[in-house]
Each structure stands twice: as structure tokens, then as C-alpha cells.
Amino acid sequence: MGCCVFKDCSSLASVTIPDSVTQIDFNAFAGCGSLASVTIPDSVERILTNAFKSCVSLTCVTVPDCFIEEDAFAGCSALTLVVPICGKRRRLRVAALTGCKQIQAK
Description:
Blueprint: E1 14-16, E2 23-24, E3 37-39, E4 46-47, E5 60-63, E6 67-68, E7 81-84, E8 91-92
Parallel strand pairs: 1-3, 2-4, 3-5, 4-6, 5-7, 6-8
């Protein structure tokens, strides 16, 4: 998924990323204020910096076994649950969830 492909798309409410995607690039969904839910398939190996930054309505993300870069979900203040699918590749960078004050991980 390319850099800034849906950046600041105010009407985007939910996303199911296709299985053909292996990486979610910088700022791909940054600033999508209405984005409430995202389903990320197992094919995704990397979620890059600021990919979902400031998606203030985002409440639930299904996270695959992947590398999650710093600030990937920064400023997602409504995010309360990340449902991890555990595996060998999982890496969550420090500050990947900066500003996510209500975060709970399972």
C-alpha cells in the first residue's frame, strides 16, 4: 500500500486490506479522522512509520505477525484494543502506539 495513498481521507470509515499487500507505507492512512476499524491480513510484513497516525476514530485493529515501526499508530486516541496474531516475525517498536491513552493489548 503506497505512501500517503489514503492520507487525510475524511470519509473513509473502515478498511479491509487485501491479501496481496505486504507493506503499509508511511502515512498511508494518516489523518483519516473517520476511520474506525482496520483489518490487516497475514500477508502484511511491515507497517511503516505514521501509517495510521492521528486516526482519532480508530478503535480496533487486527494486527498480523509483522514488524510495526515507530509511531505507526501514534495519536490514535480512541484505540482501545489491538488483537495480535502471535508469530515469529512480531516486533513492536517503542513508541508505535504513542498517544494511544486507552490501549489494551491481548
